[in-house]
């Protein structure tokens, strides 16, 4: 019987020998980097070894390993980095090489869990994981620079190019992932046949069944919550009016966009009967109001306001990611995400979205610098970018750990309303 990607995890002797040889090379180079104090080489080697050992640990077999081709490719960036002429070149190679680790992780969740990914989603997943790995490495290096007084991350521009290289390489690796599996047309992207999980069963398995809505958990009456929503909307109307009166394009665009977001739950509830309780509407309104007033006045005067709004915004992004994957899971036979992996997916979704957002802001800065035009988004240096990533991660963890129960009713309703839509069904 021919070797398939899944069987490579379950005991081919020659595959295991070659894979363990690649791990040994990575260990050697990692120890060499540790002695030389090369931060990124150490991070890369440690990540590769950790990921490569997962099959052996989970399956409790020395023969269980990644396909040797994947492990071998993961060694290449380290070998290239050894001969790179300077720090910047080595960093660029290693961050781009992180895509091979993202590919390895995707193969592992495919072979070792019940996850099922259709091809387009698999490509997106590899890209998101690559961006998340790069963000994690950059954060750890930034913290190390602060503690040790070093400057491994020299500037915000260099960090952004590292994140761009990782994201683009992740997209390429995702496409390679798709092409790799096209050699095995009879094998789905899943380690075992799964029938899918109904919403109520999912809720029980994810331990989010029977949770009270957010409006009942808040220490405020429903009437007070509704009054706060209207008050915050009036605040954004005031900012919008002021922006119009002084011809402040940035204030007008931000206030108008944020005000429109607060009415999205109302439109969805009235037109599609999606059950947004008052607590959820208040949560959304508070988040966008804080961003609106920050863009209008506070961001330029208070560093901590910026750090407060980012984790709150990240909770909204995480909620969107959660609803999206649950809808796809319910309606598309080619997609299945086990309840135990859902919080992890939410964190990866938010962390990668944060990277994509920072790349977008960087792009706006480039355009502004070349054209002289005022842009709605801008970066403010290395510390600004890195704290954004850190606080985005905090928000992702919060919503993944404690926020999912409050989204169950909304998710169920969205799933029901989309039943029969061509975008959700084949």
TrEMBL record:
Superkingdom of this protein's organism: Archaea
Keywords from the UniProt entry: Membrane, Transmembrane, Transmembrane helix
Bilayer-spanning residue ranges: 16-36, 42-59, 66-85, 91-109, 121-140, 160-181, 251-268, 280-299, 311-328, 340-357
Record flagged with keyword Membrane: yes
Pfam entry (one): DUF2238
Keyword Metal-binding: no
Protein name: Uncharacterized protein
Organism: Natrialba magadii (strain ATCC 43099 / DSM 3394 / CCM 3739 / CIP 104546 / IAM 13178 / JCM 8861 / NBRC 102185 / NCIMB 2190 / MS3)
């Amino acid at each position: 019987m021919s070797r398939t990607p899944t069987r490579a995890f379950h005991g081919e002797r020659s595959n295991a020998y070659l894979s363990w040889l690649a791990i040994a090379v990575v260990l050697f180079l990692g120890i060499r980097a540790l002695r030389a104090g090369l931060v990124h080489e150490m991070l890369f080697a440690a990540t590769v070894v950790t990921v490569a050992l997962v099959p052996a640990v989970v399956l409790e077999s020395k023969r269980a390993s990644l396909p040797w081709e994947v492990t071998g490719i993961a060694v290449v960036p380290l070998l290239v980095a050894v001969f790179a002429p300077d720090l910047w070149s080595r960093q660029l190679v290693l961050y781009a090489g992180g895509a091979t680790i993202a590919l390895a992780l995707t193969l592992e969740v495919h072979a070792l869990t019940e996850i099922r990914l259709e091809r387009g989603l698999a490509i997106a997943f590899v890209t998101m994981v690559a961006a998340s790995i790069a963000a994690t490495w950059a954060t750890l290096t930034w913290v190390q620079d602060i503690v040790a007084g070093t400057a491994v991350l020299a500037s915000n521009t260099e960090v952004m190019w590292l994140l761009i290289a990782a994201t683009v390489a992740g997209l390429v690796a995702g496409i390679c992932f798709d092409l790799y599996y096209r050699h095995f047309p009879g094998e789905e992207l899943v380690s075992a046949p799964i029938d899918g999980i109904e919403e109520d069963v999912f809720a029980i398995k994810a331990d989010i069944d029977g949770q009270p809505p957010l409006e009942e958990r808040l220490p405020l009456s429903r009437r007070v919550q509704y009054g706060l929503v209207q008050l915050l909307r009036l605040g954004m109307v005031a900012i919008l009016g002021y922006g119009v009166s002084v011809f402040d394009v940035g204030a007008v665009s931000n206030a108008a966009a944020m005000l429109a977001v607060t009415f999205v739950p109302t439109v969805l509830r009235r037109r599609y009967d999606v059950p947004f309780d008052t607590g959820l509407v208040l949560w959304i309104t508070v988040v966008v109001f804080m961003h609106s007033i920050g863009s209008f006045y506070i961001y330029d005067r208070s560093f901590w306001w910026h750090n407060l709004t980012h984790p709150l915004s990240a909770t909204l992004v995480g909620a969107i990611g959660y609803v999206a994957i649950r809808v796809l899971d319910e309606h598309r036979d080619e997609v299945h995400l086990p309840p135990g992996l859902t919080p992890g997916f939410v964190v990866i979704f938010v962390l990668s979205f944060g990277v994509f957002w920072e790349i977008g802001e960087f792009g706006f800065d480039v355009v502004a610098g070349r054209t002289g035009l005022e842009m709605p988004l801008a970066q403010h240096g290395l510390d600004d970018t890195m704290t954004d990533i850190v606080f985005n991660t905090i928000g992702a963890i919060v919503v993944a750990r404690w926020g999912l129960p409050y989204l169950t009713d909304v998710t169920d309703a969205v799933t029901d309303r989309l039943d029969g839509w061509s975008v959700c069904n084949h």
